[in-house]
Amino acid sequence: MTGPIDRTLLPPSATVNADGRLSVGGCDLVELASGFGTPLIVYDEGALRARCREYAEQFGAENVFYASKAFLCVAMARLVESEGLGLDVATGGELYIALAAGFPPRRIVFHGNNKSEEELRRGLEVEVGRIVADSFDELDRIEALVASGSPAPGVLIRVTPGVEVGTHAHIQTGHEDSKFGFSARSGDALEAARRAAASPGMRFLGLHAHIGSQVFDLDSYEQTAQVVAELLGEIEAVTGSGVEEVNLGGGLGVAYTGDDRPPSVADYAAALTREFGEACARRGVESEPTLAVEPGRSIAGPAGLTLYRVGTIKDVAGVRTYVAVDGGMSDNPRPSVYGARYEAFLPRAASAERTRTVTVAGKHCEQGDVLIHDAALPADVSVGDVLCTPATGAYAYSMASNYNAQPRPAVVFVDGGEARVVVRRETVDDLLRLDQGD
Ligand code: LLP
């Protein structure tokens, strides 16, 4: 790999000026780095909106629930709201941020494999539109809360379809040995649905299945649609009535490197819709549930990029060259946690050949703090350069930590030549915010 950065890894608004410098959303990345400091997370607001619209066009905006775990802040929740999409929250904390943003509770779906009584109480109190029940214990908790006066919620049953997807083991969720959901194979999912349908403490809305994340093969979705359709047939037979909706989760993969070729949203939607429709017809399912999805990564990922500043270049003779930047596993743990691959380029020379092979390392006190093994960069990469890793909009900032007491980066949204800070950079004072002294 020696060519310039593959432009398909950059948001569609990316342009290179006559000097070879890259702008996104009309903002020069080198200037953003100088103006806001580094590390800096930059989102192309237009790209976020365009992705929301792609999904809305395929499924209907009200049937798309952005998975906020990929990236959430007040501005992001408001952007999703303004595009007419719903929101998936998986904890009381995500719910809190969504509500702080003024996100309408009825468009929220509340997930989690171990929602506490407190979290559930809050969800019921604000009347979130859907609660995805993940265990019999949770069904008990919901019923107890309703018995003590909470309004009865709309409930989806989380189904484990027994489908193994080809993705990192940590992000597979649809296989039998999963901590999520009720197994379809064992009969637990049917039992949970029967119970939800019969319970005066809930309105049984339908089924939910999420098989994993960074998924490229559409076959896994087709298998899931078949298992869910089969289960629907059984539910209709047992309860005598159908369901209103089926949510097939998120998971569509994105390109992190020039070698990645994820399916388009349109192909993904076509596969899901066709297979689910056909599978329901084969099983004689009578209800015609709405098909909903919960994309996270494929909305936030490609729209975001991270800017770092190169601080040290170290040639270890005969071994490798380390290019160390001013962030690392604290702002993007994905390479160290999942072995995730990224690419890098220099925004000052966005069309330059990248003929030098280096290892881009972070600044943390761990040898494993490597952002990119064998990254291709221009031969003249130097100390002081701004280095960019594209496609870092999902599960980077949302999984960021303060390891080594490193303050978390700022997040800016860029659009039409304007940049606005949507999450400010942490300061060293923030690091002491929770500390009680002696
Ligand atoms: N719905 C449910 C119930 C989920 O658990 C998830 C992701 C999604 C939707 C969104 O999936 P997406 O479209 O983003 O693939 N930290 C990992 C990813 C964990 C995904 C967790 N659940 C990573 O960095 O790869």
Tally of domains: 2
Shape: globular
Over the alpha carbons, how many angstroms does the gyration radius reach?
23 Å
Count every beta strand, where a strand is a DSSP E run of 2 or more residues: 20
**Beta-strand proportion:** 15-25%
CATH class of the largest domain: Alpha Beta
User: Which ligands appear in the coordinates?
Assistant: ligand LLP
The amount of helix comes to 25-40%
N- and C-termini, Cα separation: 54 Å
Largest sheet: 9 strands, parallel
Poorly predicted ranges: none
Multimerization status: single chain
According to CATH, the fold-level topology of the largest domain is TIM Barrel
Mean pLDDT: 96
Q: Helices and strands: which structural class?
A: alpha/beta
Number of helices: 12
CATH architecture of the largest domain: Alpha-Beta Barrel
The CATH homologous superfamily name of the largest domain equals: Alanine racemase
What does this structure look like?
- With 438 residues, the chain is of the alpha/beta class.
- It has two domains: 170 residues, Lyase, Ornithine Decarboxylase, Chain A, domain 1 (Beta Barrel), CATH 2.40.37.10; 256 residues, Alpha-Beta Barrel (TIM Barrel), CATH 3.20.20.10.
- The protein contains twelve helices and 20 strands.
- The strands form three sheets. Strands 5, 6, 7, 8, 9, 10, 11, 12 and 13 form a nine-stranded parallel beta sheet that branches. Strands 4, 14, 15, 16, 17, 18, 19 and 20 form an eight-stranded mixed beta sheet that branches. Strands 1-2-3 form a three-stranded antiparallel beta sheet.
- Helix 7 packs across helix 8.
